[in-house]
Amino acid sequence: MSTAELVNHRPGRKWVLSAVAIIVSIVVFVIPFAFIVLTAVKDRTQSADLSFSWPHQFRFVQNFIEVVEARDYMLVIAFINSTILTVASVTGMVVLAAMAGFVLQRRKSRWNGFINFLVLAGLIIPPAVVPTIWVLQKLGMFKTMPGLILIEIAYGLSFCILLFRAFVATIPRELDEAAIIDGAGPLRLFFQVVFPLLRSVIVTVVVVQSVNVFNDFVNPLYFLPGDQNATVQLTLYNFSSQFTTQYNLLFMDILLITIPPLIMFLFFNRQIVAGLTSGAIKG
Predict the structure, then answer these.
(1) Which helix (H) or strand (E) holds 216?
(2) Global pTM?
(3) Could you tell me if residue 142 is left (phi over 0), alpha (psi between -120 and 50 degrees) or otherwise beta?
(4) Which among 36, 86, 116, 192 is least surrounded, fewest beta carbons within 10 Å?
C-alpha cells in the first residue's frame, strides 16, 4: 500500500497534519502581520515598547498622513517609481522570455547547449555589482530608471525562460505547421498562435516577478540611489534613520508597502500554482 493510501486510511493523521500546518502558518505569517498592524496604529510612546499589546488609542489616520507627507511626499514618489519599474520590467521579462523559450524549444541547433548553459548560469552565478555599475556608467545609464529596468529584466530572465520553455513543449507542433501553411510568418506565428496559449504561465510570471521587483531592495539601492529615485523598499531605509524612535510611523510605512503585493498574491495564488504545474501535468 502506498503512502497516500495509508494517509487516506488514517483520517486522524490528516487532521493532525492540517492542524500543524495551520499553527505554523499562524506563527509565521499571521502573528508578525498582526504585530505590524497593531504597532502602526499606536501612538509614539506606546509603540516604543515594541510589545504585542492592544493600542490605547487608534492613530491610523494621523500616522498615515505623517508617513505620506514625510520628506516631501517621498512615499508617493516611491510608489510611482516602483510602479513604473515593476510594469516595465515584468513586461520586458514576459515578451523576451516567451520568445526565447519558444525558439529554444522549437529550433534545435548546435548552439542550444551553450545557450542553455547561459540560462542556467543566470540562476546560479551571483550578480557582479561593481562591473555592472561600471558598464552602466559607460553607457550613461547609471542612476537612471531605464538602467535599473534592464538590470531587473536581466536578473529575472533565466527563471522566466525555463518556465516558458517547459510550457511550450506541451503545445503540439501541428499548430505551428498549420499556421505556416496558412501563410503565417515567424512573428505572426508566435504572437497570434503561440503567445495566447501561454496565458497560465504568463500569469504566473507576471505575479511572481511583480512581487519580486516591487519588493526588491538591493538593486535600487546599488543602481538607483538618491531620494528622488527612491522605491517603496528604500523608504524603509530612509525612514529608519529619521524615525528611528518613532516605530509607529516606521511600521505604518511597512504596512503600506506590504499591502499591494499581498493583495496581488491573495487574488492570483491559484493561477501561480496552475502555471507552475501545468507543464508537468500536460507533459
Answers:
(1) none
(2) 0.81
(3) beta
(4) 192
